[in-house]
Amino acid sequence: MSGASVAPPAERRLEGDPAVRRLFGTDGVRGPVGELITPELALALGRAVVSVTDRAAPRVLVVRDTRESGPMLEGALSAGIAAGGGHALLGGVLPTPACALLVTLLGLDLGAVVSASHNPYGDNGIKFFGADGMKLSDEAEARIEAAVRAGASRRSGPSAPSPGRVEPLHGAAADYLRALETRFARLDLSGRRILLDCANGAAHRLGPEIFRRLGAEIEVLADAPDGRNINAGCGSTHVEALGERVAAGGFHAGFAFDGDADRVLAADRRGEVVDGDELIALAALHLRAEGRLAGNGVAVTVMTNYGFHRAMEAAGVQVATTAVGDRNVLLELVRRGWALGGEQSGHIIDTGFVASGDGVAAALL
Fold first, then answer.
1. Are 23 and 131 in the same domain?
2. % residues pLDDT > 90 (the chain)
3. Residue 85: what pLDDT?
């Protein structure tokens, strides 16, 4: 992790070994609110992540999705960051990839997202990004967890750090929209009728807005979050309903995001579902035809279907296969110097834009 890198563990190796992680899973800490995910845990994680960085007063961007527990956990996490001596910058409701992008764009030290992605509203979670916009490594997460378990997050007395600040980050949504506009400046969607399902989640304003700015005529489903309806019968986990509406309404296409908008699935004009494999294939072929497919290759997981591999072979596109998980895909892209990859589930990464799955950007690819 560049910038505010996580310092090497000072204690015995066992404390920092990913094999003994209990809190962090494949995508941060996630679970039922009031059971695993509590304000107390959020506070401890905030203090812990600051305590294991190599910066005295790291600046941490904090964003969230639309769950009713979000403001509570955002407040506790931010209080922990400030109590540990860091500065928490509140970006409000934003997609997960916006956090990853803004950390690098604004030169911040860390990013934190309060979200449980595609899970129902009763769950929530916390995941961290480094100064390079990438999710923290297993080793870094293990050191954060070790700091929580060891009680390092409860320091007091003369050795305690001076408290930091909690303040709003004005213009965060506008900065993300501006970045999308710049990335897709050549894309003209005039005359295209597009149906968007925003899952009552983090993309409910930004998703429709960027499509409008690029000229599309849009209609929007699930864009009225109430704290409890995120992912409820909508979004990328219920894309079949979107397909029916696309076909019945004569739309050119439809796109369904998940709660934190880091994944997308689609429906074509006939209403047939287009999964992540197909979207990656379409993007790869389009970019290759324009001479913009970095390294002439894509990275996917072992879950990717055989048809994808055949299509890429026929097009002369190299394919690298990784274990399941968008972080594994990203690491392979970085290792090879490629840009495009993803998962069948709709996590689609274009490192030329952001080092994270981005449902909105992927829909525009």
1. yes
2. 88
3. 96
Asked if residues 97 and 179 have their Cβ atoms less than 8 Å apart, the reply is: no
* Kind plus residue range of the DSSP H or E element containing 105: helix 96-105
- The string of DSSP letters for 47-91 reads HHHHHTBS-SS-EEEEEE-S-TTHHHHHHHHHHHHHHTT-EEEEE
Say what the pLDDT of residue 11 is. 30
pLDDT class of 152 with cuts at 50, 70, 90: low
Q: What share of the chain is helix, strand, coil (3-state, %, to 5)?
A: 40, 20, 40
Q: What is the pLDDT of residue 175?
A: 98
User: 215: left (phi > 0), else alpha (psi -120 to 50), else beta?
Assistant: left
Q: Please compute, for residue 289, the number of CA atoms within 13 A of its CA located in the half-sphere on the CB side.
A: 6
How far is the C-alpha of 249 from the C-alpha of 233, rounded, in Å?
Answer: 19
Please give the pLDDT value at position 5.
45
State the virtual CA torsion across 221, 224, 229, 234 in degrees, nearest 10: 10
Do 259 and 202 form a contact (C-beta atoms < 8 A)?
yes
The domain that holds 280 is classified in CATH as 3.40.120.10
**What secondary structure does DSSP assign to 169-201, as a single string?**
-TTHHHHHHHHHHHHTTT---TT-EEEEE-TTS
168 shares its domain with 188? no
Active site residues: 117
pLDDT at residue 89, as a whole number = 98
- Residue 188 sits in the same domain as residue 327: no
Residues 6 or more apart whose Cβ sits within 8 Å of residue 33:
67, 69, 73, 122, 123, 124
Rounded Cα–Cα distance for residues 4 and 36 (Å)? 28
**Residue 226 and residue 289 in one domain:** no
Task: Show which of 252, 274, 296 is a domain's final residue.
Answer: 274
Asked whether residue 205 falls in the same domain as residue 315, the answer is no
Tokens representing 346?
A: 């709709």
Distance CA 356, CA 133 (A): 8
- The domain of 241 spans 181-274
Q: pLDDT tens digits for 45-58?
A: 999 999 999 888 99
Give the pairing of strands 340-342 and 348-350.
antiparallel
